Amino acid sequence: MRFYHHSTPRLSAFVATLLLVGIGGCAETAGEASEAATAAANTATMASAARTRLEGSEAGATLLRAIDAAGGLEAWYGTPTSSYGWEYANVGSNIQFKSTLVADNYARRMYHDLETLGDYQAAEAVDARFAWDGTNAWIWPAEIERVNPRFWGSTGYYFSSIPFVLADPGVVLEALPDEELDGIMYDMIRAGYEDGVGDASDNYTLYVSKETGQLRAIRYTVTFGGRPARSESLFYYNDYTTVDGLTVPTHFQGFAFVDGVKGDFRNEAWVTNISFKRPFDESMLAMPEGGRVQPMPGG
């Protein structure tokens, strides 16, 4: 979905933390304590800055309610990685696949072990990998074409990380009138991006519970690679669970959404084996021999 080529405030703070490493014996213990204290201070600073930014508008305050319901900015900014199995099935595109991804939450780089791939409800085991390394998206082996790593490198991550990632700098928020979904009224906001942020000009419309603040669903459009947006999709966020202090959905269901009306079933996704503490293996960002770098469409 979106690839960040610039250093975010979160990345800068993380790099600063990494510079505080003790050397040997007692110095190492002191260094670890100093590193932990600095990381905690950076987390608090970043969370405070984001909270102040969001509280400055009606739309931002609604997004902040959703983030607080999901664990809060402090918990999110304190997570070094996101990792989970992401399984996606699309009836219209006749595709289904599953990968295990590990994402660096600071630099927004990520790698996937592709485990299954095939037709809808007929995926088979594969031995493959793909990644976004901060500059290029690649897939190995090169002959795998059904999964575009430039698109899928971060799509699962972004869907699973909403509402947290919408607190990023460069996100433009707009308050919308209340709207009904399945007989319930929701607080509504739209999130888009400033020019030059990411590979697409997608936008997301969020349904936020008036009672709990929990995110119930989103509507979204995709304009990847400059392609015209097709009709909106409605994506339900279901079956929440709490892991490492963050409350996140584990089941998504997508439907067409045309002229304000929910249409046919389109797609579905599941998240399993969630962790926000799994180590990030830098070596997994290196494309193996026999891989293929995926350019943008038309590039």
Q: What is the total domain count?
A: 1
Distance between the termini: 17 Å
Number of strands: 13
Helicity range: 10-25%
Task: Find the CATH topology.
Answer: outer membrane lipoprotein receptor (LolB), chain A
> Class in CATH?
Mainly Beta
SS element count, helices? 5
Q: How does CATH name the architecture?
A: Clam
**Helix-strand string:** HHHHEEEEEHEEEEEEEE
Q: What's the mean pLDDT score?
A: 86
Summing up helix and strand content along with how strands pair, one would put the structural category as alpha+beta
The order of strands across the largest sheet is 6-7-8-9-10-11-12-1-2-3-4-5-13
Q: How does the overall form come out from the CA principal axes?
A: globular
Q: Care to describe what's here?
A:
There is one protein chain. Helices cover 24% and strands 41% of the residues. It is of the alpha+beta class and 299 residues long. The chain has a single domain (9-294), classed as outer membrane lipoprotein receptor (LolB), chain A (Clam). The chain has a 13-stranded antiparallel β-sheet with strand order 6-7-8-9-10-11-12-1-2-3-4-5-13. Strand 3 and strand 4 (122-132) form a beta hairpin. Helix 1 packs antiparallel against helix 2 and helix 2 crosses helix 3 (58-69).
